[in-house]
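FW: tagging you since you asked about this chain on Friday. Here's the raw sequence from the shared folder, copied in full. Didn't touch anything.
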Amino acid sequence: MASVLALQRIIHQNGSLLGRLASRRLKEERKILERPGRFTRGNVRYQSTQTSTQVPHPRQPKRRSKKASTIDIIQVKDECVSEQRTKVTRLNSLSLEQTLGSVSTALPSTPTMVAEPKLGSHLEGTLFEEVSLDKFSDLISSQLEKSIRYPSICEAVRWNEGVTHTYDESFASGAFETCANRLRDCTVDEELLCERSQLEVEEVLGLSEMDLSFLLSSHPSSGMTSLQPQRVEPEDVGEKGGAQKDTKKSGAGGKKSANNKKKMGKVTSSKKKSTTGAKKSKAQKGAGMTEANTTILSSEQTPEEDDMFIDRDSYKKLAREEVAAAQTENLCSTEEGSVPAAEESPGVDGNLKKGKKQQQKKKKQDEEARKRLEEIKRRGREISFNQSLESYLSVCINVGMLNRATHTLLYYRRLSKYTNGMRVSSVGPFRVLLQGHAEKGNFNKMEELLRCMQEDKIPADQAVFGALLSCLGRQSESLSNTRNIHGVLTSMTQEGIKLQQVFSDVDFIHDGYECALRAVHRAIPSFKPQQRQTTVSYACNLVNSLNDDMFSNQVPSPARDLATSCSLHKWAEEQFACELSSEITIDSIQNKDVTEEVRFHRKKLEAWESRWREVLYRTFVDQVDAMKQSFFSNRQDKRMSLYPYLVTLPVDDFVNIMMQEIGRLAGGSEAFSPSRYVLYRRLGELVFNRYIVQYKKEVGVMDKLKKVYKDYCEWYINSQSRDGTSYIPRVSWSEFASQYSEGPRLDHSPVEWPNTVLLALGQFLYSMLLTKVMVWKPLHSEKHTYPALYEVERSYGFRVVEEIKPSPTLLDLYRKASKTSLTFEAFVAPMVSPPIPWVSTKLGGYLLTDVKIVRLPYNAHQQKQRMEERGNQQLFPVMDSLNQLGSIPWRINKPMLDLLIEVFNNKGSDELDVPPPPSEHPVPPKIQPSMTSTEIHQIRRQRMDYYKKKSEMHSLWCDALYKLSLANHFRDRIFWFPHNMDFRGRVYPCPPHLNHLSSDVFRSILKFARGEKLGPNGLRWLKLHLINLTGIVKKKSIEERLQYCEDILDDILDSADQPLTGKRWWTKSDEPWQTLAACKELAAALRSPNPQEFVSHLPIHQDGSCNGLQHYAALGRDEVGAVSVNLASSHTPQDVYSAVAVLVEEERKKDAEMGKEIAKVLEGFVRRKVIKQTVMTTVYGVTRFGARLQIEKQLKALDDFPMDQRWAASQYLVHKTFHSLEKMFTATKEIQDWFTECARVIAQTRTENIEWVTPLGFPVVQPYSKMSGNKICAEKLPSSYSMDSFMRPNVMKQKNAFPPNFIHSLDSSHMMLTSLFCQQAGITFVSVHDCFWTHANTVDIMNKVCRNQFVALHSEPILEDLSVFLQQKFGYDRRDFAHDGSASDSSKMRLNNLLGKVPPKGDFDISNVLRSTFFFS
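HL: got it, structure written out here
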């Protein structure tokens, strides 16, 4: 405590020091606040594009206001240091106060600069003395061993991330104790006070200026008189995970530091221990100072690392954990000190010893767990850092900054010697640099990089040797060149790499392949490279039978008779041109009278857009130029920066992206605005997608791709007439690609940009949109301007999310202007040529645009890793299913499209689900002076509902406008939908607007491009399809449905002929627009001369009966449940929803008879519709809370149900519904509970994400982790980012999501099996998850395939295989047990027992599905 008071006296008296610090801080703050763009206007918070600081609005609510900023002190080298001389102050405990002098106890209100003595002057006799730089460095080193390192929290973190500007109590405690120990040890060590530099703060007190400002606020005069001193260890504040390594490496000096820490931590230890810990020899001190001196002198040559800042929440948590650990250590030290006395006393109980041992054991286990966690985090930072560095180096090389890339790598190599977690440990960054120098022919620089790899113990791979050979091949032939080639070949042999592997596995770009081959021929003239033999067959039990006729089966083309080879090549050129331009412009279908007002607003919008474009162009150039000067001005700072990413594209491309973003936001809703991070990432992805297209064009991928794609189109249109080729698109593509071995590989693409880069790019572009895009109000005036976009804060429960909204004036202008054209990104529209088949996880879908085979969150790297580990062959069934779905050509149903456009332009229709314009929503009445307070309150609520509903209507209207405009653009074209999937394996078309997964309205305008004759059974299936869509007789048998169709045939024909003016029978259907399309198709078939010869293009649907429960019933062989979901044969379809409603009604009657009031209220209201959604979503993990809301919503739709009983009734029905489901699906419930418990225990015990492999070999990893947001900064990019492989799982999400996700993966596997075998049968197949589509004449074939594959799928031991996989992946081995009866062993044993305990199955025979009529119907 005396040390703390001494420190306070120093702070109280040292007015000169504090005056200088306060004045310096004010100057730095003034510099930042006076930068261009740092002003506020209205309710907008502007952002500078040159820095990451964001200034808050001065009128921001008090609870959200930011505290005063503290400026990070900039380290400046002293002039005297460069002259090898400096002046230091030698202090001891007696002369400390004399050194500071007597000054005023209170700081002046306006800080002023205090006159400082010159470096050559001497004050108070011999107080100052001249020492050499070596001695000065030794003194600094001795202090650094005990100093506390705080993170460099830059302005981006303070403003953008909401980090406060003071530390919590744990930081203050550690700071005070550090200073106390400094003062206590003054008689042993020398304190430093270096004039005119940061060292006067950091080296005297061990604190930064920020920390000192906090200590001032904690002065006794401010009310804080005492704090509990605790030590915050530096390795937990900075980069974690490497503390032990540093201690071991530091030798004697490290031991001294460790002993000091031990002494400080055990404040209650015995006096003897403290004395022993303080004794050190001079040799030990000298060794420690020498090593520290070397470290300081080396770090003097490199800039300080200030881009590695830590999230505040994590920082506080680590500090609290460290404080708690220190307190525990103190307690244990006290107990250790008292144990010997207790042992000497004869009355000690043995239980005390046992308890102490258990406590020590638990402490040791906790410490080991903490170390493992820290090591995992360290590895995560290291891996993400290497990936970020590889991406940065690749971009630098591509934009012509090869030397900068080299210096950046060397900079981080040097930096890794002084920081933990920043080590260049991957071959990727070296590989990229070596390829860059290889293209320049600079073999000397490559040798230097190879020596660096040897020093870092990074082994070379095939790509490294390929780069070396290509470099030597570019040089002229000479004796030294040949000697170098022989040396490279010798090194390859020593590394165990074969020469053939280089030419088969390395991804050469430009002329690298030819140059490498030229180099090899100089040493081995007879060498001939061989093409890599790729496996094309399946390795999965469920599809191995398809290997037999892979090349012999003749399957007709899906596009036969639709186009010729010449026309297909022409369409391919159009698709290439569209993707090269990266955007597509189409005409809008909005039919609006062009009045004078519309003309005025269109003219005004054109003028504004022209001005915005000019301003954005000029601002972007200025900002990039400013960043360029900063990028090249500092020769010492070679850290990763955003600048190289900003010069990857022409300026016009960036401006076009920003202009499209303005239009997209203007077409949104006033009530909904996305998070700014979502928008940042979206803009970053748009930039990256355009960069990929340009990159493929520059490196030669596009030219080679055109050659292979031309051959593929020839095969696609004439696949049946070509002998010796496979009917599978993937296999045929691989054969054509193997004929072009030279040049880059077709799946070559640039290194993927990390999420931090995408966010930083988006933030940079949005900063210009927020500050430079202005609008005028009123529209005809230019006097009053304000931003067109602004940021808002929305509260979602306890979270406050920052969002970006368009101004009402901007929305009003775009609506009134009614633009005649719409612009989209190229990947938004369907393709006008067949998609590239998926041949690997990197190639497939669009021709040039990058599309992922699996849609994953940005931090989900674990599933990518699992897919790479399994290899392409294990993913062949999944890829081929995607290829089959994408190979089906489509066209627009023109009569249906024209009808929809007519209804849409005639103000829509709520009855027909065509969104009306927002102007059609009735306006609530205005408030009148004569109204009562109750009436005024009601009107205000009505107006709130009015604005909310109007915004929703606008969003729906814009969505319909986009889809109908795209459909109208492709009305005379044939188009294709490339497909990909989510992490569970569920398949989706890539175009987001126009696709067959849309609602009923937009499904009706799509049909198969190639038609099929109805044949003998096609007319029957067409009638059944029409009746099934209506949902009127869904409980009837097939014969009754057909008879019903005959009975209402007149209404069907009337609907086809007069859809809007006739009887309008089709409007009563569950799916009215698809019903109308079927009416038109059936009418045309019946009126044709021969219905069997009628060519039908209409897709016929076969939908699963509650497909999730079908899979559960099949897994558990649940006989009662299987019958209720139509797995068993029956004359009429079973309705599980009605069956559950019957059981609930029986329970209600019993309760009503017993006098339960709520059961009496529900009499007559337990209907199928009320509980349907709950039954449907139970299989997908709906909770009781969510189910109650679902039932309450259905009860609200019943007009005659009492409003005051909704909550109690919904709560009652939820309980009865779940109870009834447990009765019907006994095995299903047990399986679901087993899934949930396995996921929970794995996530808690193993702290890993749940993963499994589908029956088709697709690996699934649930990407639910506890997120820690990536920091974004425009100037210096963060060196690492979040990866789910090294994050704690979200236990709640993991356990709740595992059952539905596993069922979804089974559902997807069944669909893919049906797809593959339908392709083998030569029939058209399309799916919407559990709804399968085909032509009318092939429904029988598809139904047979569907049932066969369901039986084959569930004949596999799915649950047993899952249990084995989970045990192998997450189970504990015998060696992992301590065999001491501890709680840890108990939890491990419980996990092993749980994973091996597969739920029992019922007696249902799965083969009954083959005879079930209504399984899919």
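FW: The chain is about 55% helix and 5% strand.
HL: agreed, and The longest strand covers residues 789-796.
FW: great, closing this out.
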